[in-house]
Amino acid sequence: MRKSISLLFACTIMCMFFTGNALAYTAYSYGTLYLDIDTRPAAQNVNSRLNSIGYSSSYQPSVSAATAYSQMQNANVWFFNGHGGNGYIAFYNPGYRYITGTLHNPPYDNAISQLTGGVLNDCALAVFVACGSGNSDATMGNLLDQSQMNGVDTALGFSGVLDAAKSDYWAQQFAYYLDQQYSIYNAAAQAATDTYYNKFGYGGTNTYVISGSIGATIDPARAGW
Amino acid sequence: MKKLLIILTFSLLIVGSSILVYSETTGKTNVKSSISVDDAKDNVRKFIELPTAEINFRTSKAFPAESIFELNTSDSTFYVNTKTGEIEYARFDKSIQGSESVKLEMSYAKDIASKYAIKKYKGFSNMDMQLIFSDLIDHGDAGKEYVFYWNEIINNVYTPNSVLVTINPNNGEIITYIGSHGTVKIGITPQIEKEKAINIAEGQTRNILNQKIDARLQLININESTQKLIWVVDVKGNWEDNTQAFSEILVNAENGEVIPY
Q1: Which CATH code fits A25-212?
Q2: Hey, where are the domains in chain B?
Q3: Most buried residue among B64, B76, B158, B163 by CB atoms closer than 10 A?
Q4: β-pair partners for A88
């Protein structure tokens, strides 16, 4: 009896150790069914890659900006693919549908500038696959700068206008190369090249903008530094 | 009969072992190749003009129109066409150092890029290569790069022959080279007029408001054996929530069919 209890105890400890390791790092991948495009399949693919890297990654289809904003605060990798513009990204759900760099139109915005006090310190990578997401706006600020200022190691967006089919492909290839232990810069550049070859042109994907450490990798899975 | 069986078995063994050798040579994937990985490595050495450079085989890749060997050094990556042996892509990671500052005028960088294209791209000077696009792209902490893109144009049709060169705006070093090669295999007179192609693309992009539309005729290698004359229709504008919109629609210039990609 005592032997069985000891064995059970040892197994529990081992399970906690291994499960703990596997679930230690959290990631989110966002895709949305908009009125015009559907970024969910690409987000699902990215989610699989993040799980393959070792993150406990959760695919988030068509969630509200408020949900994504809230999840950003405990994410180690946060990966958005959808609509956007200078200083913001857009979610389908009406009301509270933007995440912005700085507070624009309270209370309708979820501004990254509000996430102070080291809330994002554990985030190794935030990705904003959206048109103009790497650019600044006079009122909505800059998503990448605000992310980095509030603790994200590396934030990535785009300065150009993206073709949806090509940016979906880029997102998947980018995640694939991260899973191959490429640095964030190398993964971004290589994914753009593959888009050029596979989709008959860049479609804006060569306008990636990186804020933070370009040589960092996220495989093996890790938290922000 | 027994002899025949023995010969047949022997032949199968030889074929089988040839396939195995082939697989080892080309890497893990079943990419059909005409050149060996060693040939590809030699071609890279010639391309970078370093006869003793250490080149590593990373993987094989199959794109719709071609297959490539991906090779690399410690700080550069290359795609070598498995059939022609041409270097189709080169990226020199070291060259981005210092690229956050812009010291060179675009015209000076263009001069460097065009000289490089002429030197590296077979037949550049004999083709009607036209500069289609040039820009300075800011990658944030990954630096900046001048981008120059040339395409051969015959009778207003973009052929598969194109070159892209990117330049470090600080010191003029080459960051990226992409050279695509291809022959014109089909007729280049469209059956569908430009206006008709634009109408078709508009039908696909009704949700884009304030549309600005541009269309060009392009020969695209859909796969290794199929080439199509395509109206590439770029539709830019904004979505209803005012976010920026861009959609590229490929319309078959022979029959008006929209080609998914």
Answers
A1: 3.40.50.1460
A2: 23-85, 90-180, 194-252
A3: B163
A4: A85, A100
* CA dist B126 → B88, B121, B133 (Å): 18, 11, 20
Residues of B whose CB is below 8 A from A212: 141
- Contact criterion met (CB below 8 Å) for A111 and A98: no
State pLDDT tens for residues B70-82. Answer: 999 999 999 999 9
ipTM: 0.89
Answer for the pair A30, A80: CB distance below 8 angstroms, yes or no.
yes
Nearest-angstrom CA–CA distance, B139 and B82: 31
Structure tokens at B248: 């590229």
**Residue B130: how many CB atoms within 10 A of its CB?**
11
Judge whether B90 is closer than 8 Å to chain A, CB to CB: no
Give the C-alpha separation, B163 to A190, whole Å.
Answer: 17
Site from B230, B241, B249 to mutate, A interface, most A CB atoms within 10 angstroms: B241
Q: Is A193 helix (H, G, I), strand (E, B) or coil?
A: helix
pLDDT in tens, A19-34: 444 458 999 999 999 8
CB-count burial class (<10 Å; 0-12, 13-18, 19+) for B148:
buried
